[in-house]
Amino acid sequence: MSTTTQRTTAASPGGGRSGAAAPPILKSGLSAVRLELRGYFRTPDTVFFTFLFPILMLGIFGVAFQSMGDIGAREDGSGGISMAAYYLPGLAAAGLLLGGVQNLAVDIAREKSEGWLRRLGGTPLSPVGYFLGKAGLVAITSLAQLALLLLFARFALGVELPGEPEAWLRLGWLFLLGIATMTALGIALSAVPRSSRSATAVVLPIVLLLQFVSGVYLQFTMLPDWLQNIAGIFPLKWLAQGMRSVFLPEQFAAVEQSGAWDLGLVALNLAVWLVVGVVVSLLTFRWQRRS
């Protein structure tokens, strides 16, 4: 009798535990994260193109351009870095793009087209739990990917990682803001493909083009001014610039578009795109594919 009374009191609006509804939602979200992770690592193509791709690309660039020697050295020959070290920050930023935008946009579009989201109402999983599962998947896989990328760079390619705590704190807020932005944009972009078959064809060119114009594979200042200005509209350019401020020596700031790291602008642009992604997701997301 007392147990029943306690449950009734907790469920009532005037009960002493106003947060009683939170644990079921959290439990549902954690269950969704486990399901998402299990499904993610059971699809080899997804693991290759979003999880292992930056690591493989860093290995290819680091080995292929090793004979070119160090770049960015001062006049006295000091301060140069290897090509693997130069490509590391761009590929760290690209990993967040792949895990958030590409993975989510393709996955949600497929589930929507196949009717899985329409049947969500008949399952114990709530919409909140669904999005918590997606966000948790992106956060966990992106963090694991970044950790493996840094370990690979350090021990396989001999890249010197930052030794200052300030650099690691900067990496922390860049990761959190970057992954939140890419997750919101991935959900927003999932509304564009009309079917599961077209999802990859729609999303992949966008992601690939952004990587080439945002300083991931090419030095950003090598691009013509008009293309730099266009790339500066999108978040990957700013995320890659922020990552360069973490991993590259200070003298490399001089070759940025403005001659400085501009971390304030990096945070501002990522925050703006986070808001844009959330607003567009709220306006365009549908639980079933439009006919």
Automatic annotation (TrEMBL):
Q: PROSITE patterns, from UniProt?
A: ABC_TM2 (PS51012)
Name of the protein described by the UniProt record = ABC transporter permease
Membrane topology per record: Multi-pass membrane protein
Which residue stretches belong to region Disordered?
Answer: 1-23
Q: Species name for this entry? A: Leucobacter allii
Q: What is its main location?
A: membrane
Using the record's annotation, list all stretches that form the ABC transmembrane type-2 domain. 45-291
Q: Which UniProt keywords apply?
A: Antibiotic resistance, Membrane, Transmembrane, Transmembrane helix
What PANTHER family does the record point to? Answer: DOXORUBICIN RESISTANCE ABC TRANSPORTER PERMEASE PROTEIN DRRC-RELATED, TRANSPORT PERMEASE PROTEIN
Q: Transmembrane region positions?
A: 47-65, 85-106, 127-153, 173-192, 199-220, 263-285
Provide the protein's localization.
Membrane
Specify the superkingdom.
Answer: Bacteria
Q: Does the keyword Membrane apply?
A: yes
